Each structure stands twice: as C-alpha cells, then as structure tokens.
Amino acid sequence: MKDNFTIPEETTKKILQKYNLGRFSTLDEIKTGLINPVFVINNQFVLRINTNKDSESKQKFEKEAYLYALLSKSDIPTPKCIAHDSSGEIIKEEYLLISYIEGETLKESFQKANKEARYHLAYQLGEIAKKIHSVDIHEISLRSDLFGSKEDYWNKKLEMEFAKYFDLVKDKRLLVDKIIEDIEKVSKEFASLGDLSRKATFIHGDFYGNNFQVRNGEIVGIFDFEMTKLGDPYFDLQKLPINFQLGDGFDKGAFLDGYGQKVMSTEEKIRLKKYALFQGLWELWATETQQFPFGEKEIEEGKDLIAKALAY
C-alpha cells in the first residue's frame, strides 16, 4: 500500500546535483499506482521511492534497474535508468531515478481516440506484448536471485496463491455457487495441461493501460517492471477479456493481430482463463483483506473479470 510521502525541494536539488542533471525547476507527484511514491522532476526525470524495508521490495527495485539497462538494447520503448541508489546518502529511502517519457497514459489516450486511432493503439499494444515475450531470457535466467526460476513460479507459487485467494472467496461467499463451480472446472482443465514451465518467457507482470505512455497516437513508453518474472506469456494477457480496462471500443482482434496470433487454441484459452480468474480472485481477496485500499469498485471489477473470463 502506498505511503504518504513528501520530498523537500532542497533534497530534490541534491539528487539532481549528484547526477549532474542541471538546476531544479518543478516537482510533481504522480498519484496513480498503489505502492511506491512517484515524482516527476523538471518534466525530465521520474523519481520512485521505496518506502518499504522488506527484502521483496528491495529486490523489486534492483530488478527494475537491471531490466531498464537490459531492455535499452531492445526496441521495447522503456525509460533510461539514471540511478538506483540505496546508499542513504541523500535520503534514507532507496530510490530509482529514470528518464521521463512525455505523453499521456494509454487509458487517457484511448478514451479520446476515434475508432481508427483505437484500432492502431490496440494493434501497437499487441506488438509490444509480443516484443516483451520475445526477449531472450538467457541473461535474465542467470539472475534467479531476482527473477526466480521458470519452474518455481508456474508449478508452485501460482497455484498456492490461486488457492489462497479462492479459499477466502469461497469462505466469505463472495461469488454464487455456479460461478464457484465454473472456476473449479477451469482449474481442473488447467491442471490437466501439466508442466507449463516450457512455455516460460519474459513477462511484464502488470500489463495494463496506466503503465503505457502515448504521444501523438503512438505508444512511446512502457514502465513499472517491478512485477516482471519468467512465466507463461498469457499471464500478461489476463485482462484481455475485459479489454485491458480500456473500454468497449477496444478491438481484441487488432490486439491479436499485433501479437501475431489470429486465433487461440483450446489450450491457450484455458491458460488465459486461469490467469484472468487469478487476477479477478486477487482483486476480491485484496479488497476483503484490505491489503490495498480497495472498495466496491474493485469488487465489481473483480467479479466482471471473472464472469468475462469464464465466458471467453
């Protein structure tokens, strides 16, 4: 959960001075996102603060810094990592300083776009998803300390987390019996697919509209790689049944065209359904347990994702 956090102007100036980034002029907070305080400095740099001291949070920052350097060699439009500092020299909190990509979020851009522009955005989104899932995982697999192994997550942790979310939903009777039965059916079908570690690719892990930046109708940036892991690429497509929350004007066919896949096989649909259900159940679980400051809106989003995943 995001902490209330302020950073004084003088501290911001010291950060700029440390990396020879010029004079200070403006500081604005980005209020989207659930976990880390984020600020834009001089409309040029993004400062993300890690206010958590646990090892998992520190690992996520190290992972993201590593990935920005790695992905700078690709044609995936990511920010440049300027600094990853956990020294405590200027502020006691660990921080990540990256370049700012000017534009508006994909969600904002999509809402204002006409039909032709929306098709183009959906197609580009598919192209970027494919580029992410096509990244050579050799270097990434060498950093199992950051990304785990492809066997660990998909064969063990994912099922454990799914069971935790589903058990609470059943105990609290948050869904009707028919929906529960349908989820159990998909889970059995998924289990019958066997070991999916062979499907593992590099995945973003938080593939949704607010993590993309658009300028002049083109997707010019993707960020927030802290949830990245080695896993099934269809995990990134878990919100496809609800159009990545971009609205009814989203063209799934355009997305799949950009992704290079006209149709899905029966197996691929089962995998997509399972991961969409995972996300929907997580939203119900996170709201019920108040792990995040969610409310009725997220309950309805979770239920809608579950219903549309089952119908997909």
List keywords for this structure.
three-stranded antiparallel beta sheet, Aminoglycoside 3'-phosphotransferase, Chain: A, domain 2, Phosphorylase Kinase, domain 1, 2 domains
Describe the structure concisely for a colleague.
The chain is an alpha+beta fold. Helices cover 47% and strands 13% of the residues.
Overview of this protein structure:
Helices cover 47% and strands 13% of the residues. It folds into 2 domains: 9-99, Phosphorylase Kinase, domain 1 (2-Layer Sandwich); 104-311, Aminoglycoside phosphotransferase (APH), C-terminal lobe (Aminoglycoside 3'-phosphotransferase, Chain: A, domain 2), CATH 3.90.1200. Strand 1 and strand 2 form a beta hairpin. It is globular and about 60 Å long. The two termini are 32 Å apart. The strands form 3 sheets. It has a 5-stranded antiparallel beta sheet with strand order 1-2-3-5-4, covered by helices on one side. A 3-stranded antiparallel beta sheet has the order 6-8-9, covered by helices on one side. Strands 7-10 form a two-stranded antiparallel sheet. The longest helix has 24 residues, at 266-289. It contains 11 helices and 10 strands. 35% of the residues are buried. Helix 4 packs parallel to helix 9 (252-259) and helix 8 (177-191) crosses helix 10. It is an alpha+beta fold.
